[in-house]
Amino acid sequence: MTPAAALLLLADGRFPAGGHVHSAGIEAAAGDGRVADVDDLRAFLVGRLHTGGLSDAALAAATAHRLVPGSLLVETVQLLDAEAGARQPVPPLRAASRRLGRQLLRVARRCWTHPVLDAASDVHHPVALGAVAVAAGLTAGDAAALAVHHVLSTPAQAAVRLLGLDPFAVVALLAGLAPEAEEVARRATLLAGGPLDELPAGAGPLVEIAALDHEHWPIRMFAT
Questions:
Q1: CB atoms closer than 10 angstroms to residue 66
Q2: Exposure of 92 by Cβ count < 10 A (0-12 exposed, 13-18 middle, 19+ buried)?
Q3: Residues 63, 127: contact at Cβ < 8 Å?
Q4: Which of 21, 78, 122, 136 is the most buried (most CB within 10 A)?
């Protein structure tokens, strides 16, 4: 499989990595009225892009940058995973990140054979994404772009299901955010080669606080 084909496969929402059961905070935001229409969704996505999105993209790119032949794979993965965990202070979101990472690695091992997939067994999603990018022959920039893509597309598609938003309007919104998303991915890639403890650590306090409440909803459509 060519790197271009692998990139398309990993970006496809039908790739069975578990993202379809997560709303990335949109369900809680819809429940408390923070997101009710496409304009609200845009504000939500821009916020996520420049906080958790930048952090996830930098971690994914840093993983792809460091997991090279000759590196100490297990030790490097552990260091990266510790940095990812430090950027997930809320227990429900930390647990979800690990579940998504495990599911991504599970399906990736069916597609590719590579030592990095053995080294990354139970890691947070951004680290898993970077490891899978290496296995698929992708670059650190590709890993960052994939992370940004998922940060935007996961809540956007969940908003269509939860709020009955016009899917054409939501797709147009994502297309309009493409230049901004590309810039975030570019910035994340540039930062990826620096010290791990200096990688971005953007936070979304409202999303994180709402996640604590959302976990205890008696009825919900999404895991997060």
A1: 20
A2: middle
A3: yes
A4: 136
Position 70 scores a pLDDT of 63
CA distance 147 to 145: 5
Q: What angle do CA 73, 133, 77 make, to 5 degrees?
A: 25
Residues 98-116 as b/e (b if ≥16 CB within 10 A, e otherwise) read bbbbbbbbeebeeeeebeb
Q: What is the rounded average pLDDT for all residues in the chain?
A: 92
Model's pTM, two decimal places? 0.93
Is there a contact between 73 and 115 (Cβ–Cβ < 8 Å)?
A: yes
**Helix crossing, 178-191 with 167-176: angle to 10°?**
50
Domain annotation for the chain: domains and CATH numbers: 22-214 (1.10.4190.10)
Q: Which residue has the tokens 């709402």?
A: 210
Q: Distance between CA atoms of 15 and 123, rounded to whole angstroms?
A: 19
Rounded Cα distance, 10 and 104, in Å: 9
